[in-house]
Design goal:
- GO terms for molecular function: DNA binding; DNA-binding transcription factor activity.
- InterPro entries: ArsR-like_HTH, HTH_ArsR_DNA-bd_dom, Metal_resp_trans_reg, WH-like_DNA-bd_sf, WH_DNA-bd_sf.
- This is Putative transcriptional regulatory protein, ArsR family protein.
- About 60% of the residues lie in helices and about 10% in strands.
- By secondary structure, it is mainly alpha-helical.
- A hairpin with a 2-residue loop joins strand 2 and strand 3.
- It is elongated.
- The protein starts with a helix and ends with a helix.
- The relative contact order is 0.13.
Length: about 120
């Protein structure tokens, strides 16, 4: 990942409503949510929600798909993986044990289910 892409992604998340949208979409996974439901859940006006969703999309953090009359928005998991990898790729000066320890400490806090070794897979 180029640093300019990381800056764009982090910049998009540096706004309170967009960060809330991103966190909500993370919980929904690949199925995503329509903009109207996102707006309702977060108490944001629909016209403002469109701008926030556009910013997340332009930063490469979200994807959308049409289902009938609704457009569903979801987090782009591959993009999030690339961003997180970029942020920790030089972790602990390449000491695999320290990196694995850091990521394995974080993983349980995410609510993700699976092996603790998943943190190491992120770096590979």
């Amino acid at each position: 990942m180029e640093i300019s892409h990381a800056v764009a992604a982090l910049g998009a998340l540096a706004q309170q409503t967009r960060l809330r949208v991103f966190r909500l979409l993370i919980t929904e996974g690949a199925k995503g949510l329509p903009a109207t439901e996102i707006a309702a859940r977060l108490g944001v006006r629909r016209n403002l929600m469109s701008a926030h969703l556009r910013a997340l999309h332009q930063a490469g953090l979200s994807i959308s798909r049409r289902e009938g009359r609704q457009i569903y928005h979801a987090v782009d998991v591959a993009a999030v993986r690339h961003l997180l990898t970029f942020l920790v790729q030089d972790c602990c000066q390449g000491n695999a044990d320290q990196c694995a320890s850091l990521l394995n400490d974080i993983l349980p806090l995410t609510g993700c289910k699976g092996e603790a070794s998943m943190g190491q897979e992120l770096l590979n």
